[in-house]
Every structure is written in structure tokens, then in C-alpha cells.
Amino acid sequence: MIDWTPLFISMKTASISIVITFFMGLLVAWGIIMIKNNTTKVILDGVFTLSLVLPPTVVGFFLLYVFGVKGPIGSFFINFFAYKIAFSWEATVIAAVVMSFPLMYRSARGAFEQVDPNLVDAARTLGMSEWKIFWKVLCANALPGIISGGILAYARGLGEFGATAMLAGNIADLTRTLPIAVYSDVAAGNMGSAFNYVVIIIIIAFVAIFFMNYLTIRQGKQWK
Known about the structure:
The chain has eleven helices and no strands. The protein has helices at residues 5-34, 38-53, 56-67, 72-81, 89-113, 117-125, 130-141, 143-158, 162-167, 178-187, 191-223.
């Protein structure tokens, strides 16, 4: 009989992380395209995209260094709130956010850069504030790319393994997500159980890709 707990933990983690990643990715992407200095833009873009190209275990190492019991943030929470971040469920959310953020950020930035600059200039001429321009001009015209980035980021957070294993560990009924459950079952020789989890992950990934393509095509038809 399959244990559904890893699925529930993964869904909860991905659902919380995508809310954080979605709005953070939009705001950071907007901030980057507003920067005029190309050198500053390139450096910041590299920082925000770094976790996309680094091995997840390397990212997990840095997260553990920061949020561990001796890390600057981890020790702060222990000393002032008596709460340990590492090897907690919250650690799975932090790992998912860090690993999925570049996908949301890059998708949003690419979509923003495809918006006709004349629309933005016209909005400024009409006296619209930068905040209204962001929501009513940039986001409205970049919606397909934003939606695609959100779905990809959600799927990435759902399938995160390396950084999660380093920061959150493999604690049953607490931090054992679907990918970690697959690893645990394979290591224990429970190939049947691991196969069941793999099928679930494949189905979720396929549904995410299908939904992303469907929304993009539908939005494109509405604009024609």
C-alpha cells in the first residue's frame, strides 16, 4: 500500500513556495529591467540565476551554512525564537523557493522585455504611476510568459531533491517529499514503492506542462 504522506508534503511545500516565488520573481524581474546600468544588470542577473546552474547539493550546502544552527539566520532564530529552521518542514519551502525562483524570474523578465516599449512610454505620458504601469501594462501584456514561469516554478519546487535533502533532510511525515521518498525506497530496495512515486511525479509533471501549453495557446488566441 502506497504512503501518500510524501505527496501531501510535496504539494503543501510547492503550493506555499510558488506564492513566494511568483510575486518575488515578478518584482525582481521588474526591478532588473528598470536598471539602466548594463554592468549592474548583468551582475544581478547572474546572482539571481545562479541556483539554476549550480548543482542542487551545492545550493543546499550554502542554505545549510546560512540556515543551520551555526549559520547567521539559523542561529538568530534559535537564540531569539527558540526555533531551528534546518531539518524542519519550513526548510523544504526555503529550498523549493531558492531552486524554483530562477525559472519564475527568467520567464517574467523575458516576458516583460517582449512588451512594446511604446506602450510603457504611452502610459507614462498619460500620467500613470510606475506601479500601475507594472500591473496594467507590463503584467497584462506579458501574461502568457508569466503563467508559464509560474507553472514551471511550481513543478520545479514539487520535484526539488538535492537542496531539500541537504537543508531539510529525510524525516518521515515531516520533510520526506516525493523525490526524497523515491531515493529512500530505492536505497532500501523497495523498487515497487519507488516506482509508484515515480509514476505520480511523471503524471504531475505532464499535467503541469500540458496546462502551461494550454493556457499559453489560449491566451495567444485571445490576443489575435
